[in-house]
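As noted in the main text, all predictions were made from sequence alone. Below is one such record, for Cupin.
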Amino acid sequence: MQLDPTRFDHAAFLRDTWQQRPLLIRNPWRGWANPLEPDELAGLACESEVESRLVTGGTGAWQMEQGPLQEERFATLGSAPWTLLVQAVDYHVPAVAALLEAFRFVPNWRVDDVMVSYATDGGGVGPHFDQYDVFLIQGAGRRRWRIGGRHDDTSPLLPHADLRLLAGFEVQEEWVLEPGDIVYVPPGIAHDGIAVGDDCMTYSIGFRAPSRAELMDGWSESLLDGLTDDDRYADPALPLQDNPGEITPAALAQLHAMATAGLLDMDGFARWFGQHSTRPKYPEIDWQPEQRMDQSDLAEMLPAGALERNPAARFAFVRQGETDVLLFVNGRCIPCEGAAATLAERICGEDHLLVEPAAIADPAAAELLLALVNEGAVAFDG
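Prediction:
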């Protein structure tokens, strides 16, 4: 499913709107069709490997239940407003994963997942703000979005064990969305979506934004893993001090250099961040195919169909010089040269691609593709 470039200008959006202000985008699709039925979403919420939540009640009386849900639970909900939210639906439903193709103007490493919600009339999760960018696509039914001002972690919240609901919410804009309409909300902007009528489905495409604390914690922990107790401060030819209580500038400079030298290693940071940013969201799920392929199977399959990335697999690469790349797949780093590097770049940049047999004539490229197929990171269409 693609956006109509005459109704949505990627470059203008990134320049004028991205992380600056909310935006209502009236049905910019070449042809909108809701990619998921409510019953299918409810079925996913009953699966143990799928993350889901059920929010019932309304203003002042919200309650939340964590999934997996029992199928019988939906029959007991009655007429009070309720909302079902299911995370990472794109991992399980190809038609939902296809929505992401329209948003590839944002780097892939920033994409988190597609959360899908279903709500009855009046259903919602209350006024809140997120710490990441989000596109809210109206799939079916109608939803009223109320947009507020900018908030942060100092903003007062209502007392609630499970939901981060704003205590103060002043509406600045209000829009009712029809199927195919989109609202973009930058980080920190308060918003509140309320279903108008039943069978309201919304697709939320969220984007990850690592915090400074997360980066510092992860990168420094990675560095610590490579250090030993033998790497210590030393001060041969120690000069006599006038006052033994002073930590001298020379000592501080040496200690500071010891503490920061590794942090400034850009190549090491690039390797760590590539692995960190591609770690699978749900590592406990095994996506390996039931039958492993060998090189003869691969040669037979190539002419038969397109190669597809597993929506649950995370890919990225970092260039090394003019021709080589470091490929990152689900937290692993794979150095690639020549034809393998070319293939790695294509897989990272295209959701679906045709791989000609000549592309894996190089043994390293063939080995790379076979490894990705056998770990379930890519598969042949059909």
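The longest strand covers residues 189-207. The chain has three domains: 10-207, 212-232+246-264, 295-380. These features were considered when defining construct boundaries for the mutagenesis experiments described in Section 2.9.
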